[in-house]
Amino acid sequence: MRTSRRLLVIGYPSRLVADHRELLAAARAAGFDAELVAPSRLGLEVSGAGEQVVLDGMAQRPGRDSLPEVVLPRGVNRPWPLLRQILGCWQRAGVRVVPDVAAAELCADKLVTTRALVAAGVPVLPTVGVAPGQGVALPEGIGTGELVAKPARASKAAGVERYPDPARVQAALGAPRPLVAGLIDHHVVQPLATSAGIDYRVIVARVGHRMLVPAVTRRHASPGGFVTDGEVEDVHDPSREVPEVVEVATRAARALGLGFGGVDVIEHQGRAVVLEVNAWPGLAAEVRGRQLAEVLVEVASSEPAS
Which of 13, 111, 265, 294 is least buried, going by the fewest C-beta atoms within 10 A? Predict the structure, then answer.
């Protein structure tokens, strides 16, 4: 039986430094014994007796003080295939993981995310998934105008490219390319949204049965670009200023079972559609201080163990 409330933030000490600082401070203020743990300190021991998470070489067994109450993975895209298994083991042992492992898995691949949202009736951009290589061909339904192609598992706009027509996409994705760590990531191809250059990041949080929207930002592309890496401004009254954006984002979070996340929404042909969903959105601590960190800790405190 635990004698203290232990919370682990899983992340890299050299990245998201301000976010981690505020998240740990918010957790401690809420009564947790909080620690930042690098993914490399974790392992999964598997034997005939079962499986258990290993931290710093020590097994984290149920019923011991060492088993955390809450685990918050943050920005762990690269080690996710291993961490998914580690976090799943913890979750089955009664540890609260935010976001839930199944929800984070749905967000890890843009094609998987899109399929789940379509199944739930949430509006999205038309999407085609392809594996780069000789013979790539796109269906007519993707349209004849400008298209965007991007790796399905990338983040922070890595590898996003714009093309004037399907023929250029097919030529680019059909060109030989080297394996990276033995892989070629599959890509998603989508029409260039009619409002490309402006989108919204909606932070959605589930506290108990309430779905909250603690922050909405309007993001702009740099001059001449289409990726929204330029000016960012707060939407101060989202429910009044961008009600459709908020509604679509909260529907997406519910459909994915996401307790805390960032939903990117863009306007296409006169309606708000989901562009992608981030299970580990930045907390913008440099600008917002502890605001979103406190919301995430509140979510972690209110969610029932899986």
Answer: 13
